[in-house]
Amino acid sequence: MTDSQSPARVADAELAVLEVLWRREQATIREIAAQLYPGGSTSEYATVQKLLDRLESKGCVRRDRRGFAHLFSAAVRRDDLLGQRLQEVAEKLCDGSLTPLLLHLVRAAPLTSHDRDELRKLLNSPPSKPKAGE
């Protein structure tokens, strides 16, 4: 997936597969199925295979076909997907503004001193230029 593309809409079950790939960097279908369905059956293996096929068609995973067991890796970064999801919530609930959403998140959970320092740095830095296609 290129930087100018936004991540495709990912369902919760697909997100669980991506979580495994973000943690492991790459994995076979069997390894992913074992993580998601410990002691699972053939039907769970088939479910993971279908989820990987959908994620691949959306451009969210890459498949390495060189070995007997295909290796899968995430083609979308967690931060990109997070940004998309938060923007969707802002569009639905806050007329597109991230401010109410961010204020709620900051008020709802205590921030560590490291988190506060990171926020200060972000707020005090010059605005970044939009990426191509934004």
Describe the structure in brief.
By secondary structure, the chain is mainly alpha-helical.
Question: Care to describe what's here?
Answer:
- The protein has 134 residues and is mainly alpha-helical.
- 56% of the residues lie in helices and 6% in strands.
- It has helices at residues 12-24, 29-36, 42-57, 78-93, 99-108, 113-124, and strands at residues 61-64, 71-74.
- A two-stranded antiparallel ribbon has the order 1-2.
- Strand 1 and strand 2 form a beta hairpin.
- Helix 2 (29-36) packs across helix 3 (42-57).
- The two termini are 16 Å apart.
Structural class by SSE content:
mainly alpha
Q: Can you list the strand order of the major beta sheet?
A: 1-2
How many strands appear in the DSSP assignment? 2
Q: Which spans have pLDDT < 50 for at least 5 consecutive residues?
A: none
Global Rg: 18 Å
Binned, the helix content reads 55-70%
From the N-terminal CA to the C-terminal CA, the straight-line distance is: 16 Å
User: Can you summarize the main beta sheet?
Assistant: 2 strands, antiparallel
Q: Taking all residues together, what is the mean pLDDT?
A: 86
Shape: elongated
Residue fraction in strands:
5-15%
Number of helices: 6
Give the ordered list of helices and strands.
Answer: HHHEEHHH
Defining traits:
134 residues; mainly alpha; 6 helices; 2 strands
Which helices and strands, and how do they pair?
Blueprint: H1 12-24, H2 29-36, H3 42-57, E1 61-64, E2 71-74, H4 78-93, H5 99-108, H6 113-124
Antiparallel strand pairs: 1-2
Helix pairs in contact: 2-3
